[in-house]
């Protein structure tokens, strides 16, 4: 069985802050990490590999050359092969363009049974690339997977809903997107880290390595374009109550009562 | 593609087990406003089985037109079934914009449809408008976990698609006398079109109020420290007839249910009073509650961002403040 895990290197948005004076994003010193949901996708692939014989896990990432670090981390966790898609002409692609590039690379890899993605990346938060890859490949999809079983060539997945879940069955090949509830990603071993950073080779593909219509990707080929971006405005109006806890609590209680009466 | 051929605003009216999802009505409300600016109509797109009552409800909430695609195969949501029916209808009738609620279903359906139609999709929008000159849809959404807002256009492709955050837009008042035109069609779908099989639909009964509907919310964050720490918050919420909610930190620690998460990756709420306890006020959280009518912050740290965003803030330990407030409110009640 061949599993392809699509991964993205992202800035840790928990660490991204806004400069209160300039109103701009402070990204200096913000660490880059494997997108959290993608880590769950990789972990699930590694668990399948442990459970069944003859499973190959290939990790695939599109991004600038430094995204290689995320792939090395994936190798250290136990992935068999790593491919990075890097080309200036890929830059500026929206989800439609990005998914087309990744789907083209998946087509080139070929002979896969499962494509695993994270539900969404924490920088863009769109949750679109997984389903769009599935559409470009003409495959069924199950998103928001919180539990996964493989029986022969059939997939049985729990698909999370706001108020419960669906149990969905389908046949491979299939595209799945993972959520946090699916598993707890492992830590890489020391030996794994050493090997991944010293010994292993990462395959680099540029635009000439995949079959793709260059007019449909990048800034120009993408259907959506960012017209402007700005930092959200907040209404700062605060009044801080001082005094003893009793006094302050009374003031709060009176205010709440006023609001309750309307 | 001649974009002038594309007319009208469509909204996807999501139903689950024959129950209309609230966001569909919010989309009609917003869709109507956009349609007015474009000089066109808002059409609700309903897929399901035995859902005639829902079709009528959509009209009562302001849909100028309802297209109801009926088939037993559409009873439960499947990506394949819904995407096929919707894409076929879009290709035949050419709407200029489609709004989809950013629910667990909408976020599965939207990208599948946009990829098939080779058009643009903007995710989880919190602002929608029409450019007065170009008439393009202006789709505004948070990115970087709510740290940045982006306004996005899909100028050269149609339909312009957007998934929309539930709870952001207002629904119209229900008016049964509205004369929306309901067109029921038999959906062009076969069992073999659907490659996945929904084996089981499981609802997890949760002992929680819909935080989007609550008038009073007592919300806890990292500062609460434990699941047990939420007990005083619950007591205050019960006293006010409201509900408990939490920040992402509280959800990730398993202290409150995911359905009760307020913020960028949770729900947007606008209660009468929002009481934030032990919440630092990261922008991701503020994005989900800043439009509350009245915000009260209780925090040990005077410098926490939430203190500035609140109408009233008290520096102190919630463990002392909340029981005191409960006692004061009880005293006022008598």
From TrEMBL, chain A:
GO terms for molecular function: electron transfer activity. Residues 22-214 form the Electron transfer flavoprotein alpha/beta-subunit N-terminal domain. Pfam families: ETF. Signal peptide: none annotated. InterPro entries: ETF_a/b_N (IPR014730), ETF_b (IPR012255), ETF_beta_N (IPR033948), Rossmann-like_a/b/a_fold (IPR014729). PANTHER family: ELECTRON TRANSFER FLAVOPROTEIN BETA-SUBUNIT, PROTEIN FIXA. This is Electron transfer flavoprotein small subunit.
UniProtKB/TrEMBL annotation, chain B:
One of its GO terms (biological process) is fatty acid beta-oxidation using acyl-CoA dehydrogenase. SUPFAM superfamilies: Adenine nucleotide alpha hydrolases-like, DHS-like NAD/FAD-binding domain. FAD binds at residues 222, 247-248, 261-265, 278-285, 299. It comes from the Bacteria. Its cofactor is FAD. InterPro entries: DHS-like_NAD/FAD-binding_dom (IPR029035), ETF_a/b_N (IPR014730), ETF_a/FixB (IPR001308), ETF_alpha_N (IPR033947), ETF_asu_C (IPR014731), Rossmann-like_a/b/a_fold (IPR014729). One of its GO terms (molecular function) is flavin adenine dinucleotide binding. Residues 9-198 form the Electron transfer flavoprotein alpha/beta-subunit N-terminal domain. Binds 1 FAD per dimer. Keywords: FAD, Flavoprotein. Belongs to the ETF alpha-subunit/FixB family. This is Electron transfer flavoprotein alpha subunit. It comes from Clostridium carboxidivorans P7. The lineage of its organism: Bacteria, Bacillati, Bacillota, Clostridia, Eubacteriales.
